[in-house]
Amino acid sequence: MEYKTDFLIIGSGVAGLTFALKVANYGDVAIVTKRDVMETNTRYAQGGIASVFDKYDSFELHIQDTLSAGNGLCNEEVVELVVRDGPTRVRELMDWGVQFNLYKSDRSVFDLGLEGGHSKNRIVHAEDLTGYEVERALVDRIRENERIILFENHIAIDLITYSKSVKRGVITTTHEDSCCGAYVLDTKKNEVHTFSARITLLATGGAGKVYLYTSNADVATGDGIAMAYRAGASVANLEFVQFHPTCLYHPKAKNFLISEAVRGEGGVLINGEGRPFMEKYDPQKDLACRDVVARAIDNELKRTGHESVYLDITHKDPDFIRKRFPNIYKKCLSLGIDMTREPIPVVPAAHYMCGGVITDTYGRTDIKNLFAVGETACTGLHGANRLASNSLLEALVFAHRAASRAIQELERLSRNPIHDLPPWDTVGTTDSDEVIMVSHNWDEIRRFMWNYVGIVRSNKRLSRAWNRIENIQKEIMAYYWNFTVTADLIELRNIAMVAELIIKSAMSRKESRGLHYNIQYPQKDDEKWRRDTILKRSIEG
Ligand code: SIN
């Protein structure tokens, strides 16, 4: 089946939905999303949106905090425009029905939280379920918009560019690339559809599933980064994977975050010996930047041999804890942990990809008519380490900017009809008789990425990871060409691609900076390495 649309949006988190709502007055919109529309990383974001509202805060301070977290690699123009646009974007969300926490005594004042690396309280939040509340309100509006068609249970396989031939993945010409849609698998019917679009937006979120332990939703398999790279777009800074210091450690808890806001409200990290330890590592103690806290925990775990550290907030009033963190409180209690009376066991886990598909300040990639926004993109905001709660902010600001530019471009593109594209080529493929290859390689990649390309890296670990990914990539390619595509195979192909790019980027950076720490090069080297790590596939493939 072939669908034609003005705007094709791949992904349904805050970036994709915000973009959709803004462009829908100008053209038809198709949103393709892998599972249920709500099943995105946005939905699980607990902390909030960093923005300047407090009278003691200023844009300059927020800019400064973002730059110091980013450790020399932020694009200052981007930092400035994102920070300054923040309050407008937050108010727009409220107009769309998002309910943030406001002071009871003055409903025009936000109840602002504090998180690591922030010099002031500036986290606009909705209890400890901010992402859920934002996603809920956006989905409500999407569902009532007649120009937006939502394709749930549809997973994009690859972008379609002019330089790509009919046969999947084979590049035949080298003229300037332009994106004209994507091949998409309907996972309920097992049919591949062709989506022809004037403008395509990648908003597929993060890639936490590349690692064994992650705070991310199961859908976070780096699809946008992998598809963009395969299509010939430039990607950058993929070595900067942020590990959140505090994910719940419990055999029955999968991917559950204990928000940094718990430390913002006074929570203290203690080791298995019952001692607070952050003062040994940083003067900002428990509210140091995430790279510092995650490395400190990693060190404590290795030093003591314990399986987790603990986050203790028992000194606060139980009623306050229950009210401020209803979601975390409920989840912990369901597992037999009463956080008002006992410390919560926590470990670091892969949380956020600071690198991604390179875009300009309007979300445009270096492939014409292809935009990328949100965690998929690398705009220059985060540099070598993202400041907490700057991600929803970036997604909102860039969705707005990308939409304004896409609307302008649509005017030019509308002079020509939408292209007829070749259907997906299924010749020569049969159903697999070896599904074990997919599940085995999924596990293997996630495990060696965790062990060799995690919080603390070394040349030897990276080269072990490189050897493994090379072999796995060959196996996946052979399988991909011979058998019918499935959602699991598509995701495996993407996590393998992203893993390869992370390893390659980490091997090339011969220093330690922000989230990238290599024991062979423990120092930062501004002279040689104060630059982005850019990768681009050669067009010959
Ligand atoms: C958290 O609540 O700790 C996550 C916030 C973020 O990653 O920005």
Which ions, cofactors or small ligands are bound in this entry? succinic acid
Tell me the total number of β-strands.
17
Distance between the termini: 28 Å
How would a crystallographer describe the biggest sheet? 7 strands, mixed
Which regions are unreliable across 5 or more consecutive residues at pLDDT < 50? 165-175
General shape: globular
Structure explained in plain terms:
The chain is an alpha/beta fold and 541 residues long. Among the domains are: 248-351, Flavocytochrome C3, Chain A, domain 1 (Alpha-Beta Complex), CATH 3.90.700.10; 436-533, Methane Monooxygenase Hydroxylase, Chain G, domain 1, CATH 1.20.58. It is 36% helix and 16% strand. The strands form four sheets. Strands 1, 2, 5, 6, 7, 8 and 15 form a seven-stranded mixed β-sheet that branches. Strands 16-14-9-17 form a four-stranded mixed β-sheet, covered by helices on one side. Strands 10-13-12-11 form a four-stranded antiparallel β-sheet. Helix 1 links the parallel strand 1 and strand 2. Helix 4 (76-95) packs across helix 11, helix 12 runs antiparallel to helix 13 and helix 13 packs antiparallel against helix 14. The longest helix is centred in the C-terminal third of the chain and has 24 residues, at 459-482. The relative contact order is 0.17. Mean pLDDT is 94; it is low at 165-175. Residues 46-47, 257, 259-261, 352, 388-389, 391 line the site of succinic acid.
